[in-house]
Amino acid sequence: MAKQPMLKFVTVDRDMPEKRDAGIRAHDFNEIYSEFAAAKAEEQASRCSQCGVPYCQSHCPLHNNIPDWLQLTATNRLEEAYAISQATNTFPEICGRICPQDRLCEGNCVIEQSGHGTVTIGAVEKYITDTAWEKGWVKPVRPEIEREESVGIIGAGPGGLAAADMLRQAGIQVTVYDRYDRAGGLMTYGIPSFKLEKDIVMRRIDQLEQGGVEFVLNCNVGEDLSFDAIRGKHDAVLIATGVYKTRELSGENAGAEGIVRAIDYLTASNKVSFGDYVEEFATGELNAAGKKVVVIGGGDTAMDCVRTAIRQGAESVKCLYRRDRANMPGSQREVANAEEEGVEFVWLSAPVGFTTGVIEPEGAGAASGIVRGATVQRMRLGAPDTSGRQSPEVIDGSDYTEDADLVIKALGFEPEDLPKLWNTEGLDVTRWGTVRAEFGSGRTSLDGVYAVGDIVRGASLVVWAIRDGRDCAAAILEDLQTADAIAAE
Fold first, then answer.
1. Rounded to 5 degrees, what angle do the CA atoms 85, 88, 93 make?
2. Same domain, 403 and 263
3. Cα torsion through 282, 284, 288, 294, rounded to 10
4. Which DSSP state fits 221?
5. How far apart are the first and last CA of the chain?
6. 402-459 pLDDT per residue, tens
7. What span, in angstroms and rounded, lies between the C-alpha atoms of 131 and 416?
8. How many structural domains compose the chain?
């Protein structure tokens, strides 16, 4: 009888890839986890219980066939495992690195609930696709038939790129427009290299270009090219811009010099990682080196900022969050990584204003309004709000000052006013400013215009943007097919 390759969770403990020493990794932007060796990947995949109802799959936004590719990995059938993984996920090697598995697939693993420790799904997913690239199994898109229809995609982030991939597979002509000089959106300029090394993103962009996707970069829609011009050029248009407008701070001196947006700070750091010259980084405005840094916020963007500041050589890094650790929205795994690297978390605290100072620039006279500290209120958790989370309440008389030379706002993102920005009538938005789109298809109030990702959902996860892009591509193909059938009658 053949040896059972699975269900080894009783005898084999959970084991993650080796994490580099915090004292070493805190000084570079390389990824913090080493690769699984083949034997280790097989061993960890073999822990899967192959349960009848795979909660890991149902709690994955892409509904990845996780038990199937775990079994294939456990039996050293990696090329088949990659094919199964790629069938539902456009970028499995990216999701394997940056998805909050502790909140999604791994957090709902059946054997985790029984006390045996979850299967290391994310690490195995990363291993499968990295191996596929190494072995040459990942190929450019080569559609069997080229079609005349064209689709314009505004935004080269995960949602737009996932849709571009699916549409090119069907032979559609695809042009992607983006405001930045490199494609990838937040995967390129928002997420630091220690979580997602940039060559990982760039090789996917190159794969899409080799497959026939055209990229028009440094293109601000509404300024360099009108939305109406894009609509006139293509049979369908997909809006996948993401959300980039930063929620603002209030309080005294909230506009002081040295208080910066998280997106500006992270973009500058990532550009420098590419070897670009960034003036604001060179002058120190967006560089944490030698500074006392305070990051405000508790999400994944805040975690990216604090860990970036450590690597830039900050004197100290503190993260202020108005709730406690158990109620923060960011990944607990990321919090643990940040603490290992020297970040201090100040729970149940919120800034109400800022103190400023004066510096003497060389030959320029005195300059005032430079942030020197954050006035912080202590909080406690009170009654739950409408979502069930406990609402923070101010503790009277608890104010104190937290020294700061650089304050980074990581309070989340809001949508830009696209109808106004693009001078477009008839594009319906919600009361939150997101584009109103049909669930599943992404169809908007404008004929032939679709929308996906954060510009519809609000700030969310890369994996949800990929799901939206793939679903919308299917809807676009269906609508183009219907239009062709009507035209042929």
1. 50
2. yes
3. -150
4. B
5. 61
6. 999 999 999 999 999 999 999 999 999 999 999 999 999 999 999 999 999 999 999 9
7. 39
8. 3
